[in-house]
Amino acid sequence: MPPGTKAMAQYDYDLFTIGAGSGGVRASRYAARLGARVAAAEERYLGGTCVNAGCIPKKLFSYAAHYGEDIAHAAGYGWNVAAAAFDWPTLIANKDREIARLNGVYAKLLAAAGVTLLDGRATGVDAHTVECAGRRISAHYILVATGGWPVVPPVPGAELAISSNEAFHLAELPRRALVVGGGYIAAEFASIFNGLGVDTTLVYRGERLLKEFDADLGGFLAGEMQRKGVRIRFHSNIEHIARAAHGQALRATLADGSVLETDCVMYATGRAPNTRGLGLADAGVKLAANGAVVVDAKFQSSVPSIYAVGDVIDRVLLTPVALAEGMVVAENLFGSGDRSLDYEGIATAIFSNPSVGTVGLSETKARERVGDIDVYRTTFGSLRDQLTGSGEQVLMKLVVDRNTERVLGVHMVGPDAGEIIQGFAVALRCGATKYQFDATIGIHPTIAEEFVTMREAVG
Q1: Which of 3, 104, 191, 449 sits in a 20 to 30 Å window from 410, CA-based?
Q2: Inter-helix orientation angle 22-33/88-113, to 10°
Q3: Chain centroid to CA 241: how far?
Q4: d(Cα 124, Cα 201) in Å, to the nearest integer?
């Protein structure tokens, strides 16, 4: 039984979770298995952003976008493929069916763990009370796991634009698309639209894509995306969006006065913590300027009985991180009480075309932290592309502490980058050195073997 059971008996539940996304579901299930009485409320859809408007549908769209290129490249291997035709409604219907299946899986997981699931919006009343579906419910602990929501800048005509949320449900595939942003969502959707045959332009106010990552990644990715047909306009931003004089077309006026005509403007310019209207401030919970719940290392807010995990705390906006944070909360409240989370060395991938995988420190961060480093970098055409005529290039990079030989960062742009980097994330977690990389015999012929064959530092 969880600690403090007698004290918690005065409440309807030991834990009440607001939001049944990745972090909320994981914390609720784990807490219930530790003996806690748990309820979770969800007003929108089970599984949160990841399952419904993020990781899963986006990866399915990314797969779809690659098939056209794969079919074209098949000719180099002797396949005589008839002219391919893509059907957007089929993709949407099949995607929706898979999402519905996953929604059902989440419901079953909660039920199997003994978690009471409430369908509705829950808001905080005080330190131990929430209101949901017209009734007040008490809990010893409250967990806020409401995620984030796309932000569309308030430019004139912004109501004519969409975010990634709406992109998953477009009635028809646009002939032309204008994607605004330079982060991973912008790069991914520009690649998706382009891969599905949409005339695609990416507009970004900065000087390079993926500014939060190693500088080589964004620059190399932009070059490859442009080679594949995406037009990228750096140092640009939209000043105004309006309907064109004909049909449903849109006219986006940029800061330099130029006008781009398109059928769809999609903003991928960031997300904000989803705390508006939750009553958290009224309950005494301290919020950051952007609405994020301010928490400590144990994910406890300024109100001792209220915790928060996932995108709503605006730390690392990744599903596996939310899952890990949820486990920490459940274990610390109802288990051993000594679990923590280390944010160092979290691997991630961008499912653009080509894809990006990265773990550890960027070259810049490594120089700031340890000073003397060695950089190993290589670019090449993979064996697969030698018969396709595509000219696609791969970038692979290692950042190494010169004094200790420890590998500090592993970065890649190329096919299956996420799959490859996952394994190297384990190596970095174990403190692998460049000597150990060099002593590892590679698998030939693969792209991944380049990470254990780079011998000459370039910087």
Answers
A1: 191
A2: 20
A3: 27
A4: 43
Read off the tokens for 408.
């500090």
Which residues are part of the catalytic machinery? 444
Burial environment of residue 83 by CB neighbours within 10 A (0 to 12, 13 to 18, 19 or more):
exposed
Q: Is residue 311 situated within a structural domain?
A: yes
Output the pLDDT for position 338. Answer: 85
Compute CA distances 421 → 52, 359, 429, 451, whole Å.
25, 7, 12, 10
Specify the pLDDT at position 7. Answer: 56
Q: Distance from first CA to last CA of the chain, Å, rounded?
A: 57
Distance, in Å, from the CA atom of 103 to the CA atom of 60, rounded to the nearest integer, reads 16
Per-residue pLDDT of 252-286, as tens digits, reads 999 999 999 999 999 999 999 999 999 999 999 99
CB 440 within 8 A of CB 449: no
Same domain, 11 and 108: yes
Per residue in 383-403, pLDDT tens? 999 999 999 999 999 999 999
Contacts of 90 (CB under 8 A, 6+ apart): none
Say what the pLDDT of residue 1 is.
43
CATH of the domain at 255: 3.50.50.60
Question: Cα–Cα distance between 253 and 260 in angstroms, integer?
Answer: 6
55, 176: one domain: no
Give me the number of domains the chain comprises.
3
341 domain-assigned = no
The crossing angle, in degrees rounded to 10, of helices 22-33 and 319-334 is: 30
Residue ranges, the chain, pLDDT below 50: 1
Q: Are 31 and 332 spatial neighbours (Cβ–Cβ below 8 Å)?
A: no
What domain range includes position 216? 158-269
